[in-house]
Design goal:
- It is built from ten helices and two strands; from the N terminus they run αααααααβααβα.
- It is an all-alpha fold.
- The protein has one domain: Endonuclease III, domain 1 (Orthogonal Bundle).
- α2 packs antiparallel against α6 and α5 packs across α6.
Amino acid sequence: MKKEIKRCEWCTGSDIEKAYHDDEWGVPLHDDQKLFEFLILEGAQAGLSWVTVLKKRDHYRKVFDQFDPSRVAEYSNEKIEQLLLDPGIIRNRLKVSSAVSNAHLFLDVQSEFGSFDRYIWQFTEGKAIQNKWRSMSEIPANTAESDAMCKDLKKRGFRFVGTTICYAFMQATGMVNDHTAECYRYSELC
């Protein structure tokens, strides 16, 4: 008899969630372009389910130039209007325009710190925080680290970077290991 693999409860609803959980969620990420992607997608997710974003992610990559911040920063008002007509993304004017303004700010941070990676990982002192939750109900929506990240990003002018969004970003990019202790990925990422 094949042994059932234990996973975090949140990912069992669909194959796309399961694949994301197994391959990406919680893996420490240090590539600036991928960090920009998660920054934009986490902001787009605000008020929606993450599976909604996952289903649209490939199309987002296509229409947002693979999340190249230099290219997104150049988007004109005409390009924003074009994006707002595209049913393959979340068509919220504030979220789409914030992606463009956040791209400018992202490039500023890269200039100041040498990379966005160097900047963003300072909030966890350059290493992943290893939590050991027994159930999803124990996982907080925000922490002191996500509060500090939110405050600094907002001070720099970033939008759609509330503390809950920042914590989700930290979870997605492996700044925190929030796989539950019984999940097979937990020990793989410790």
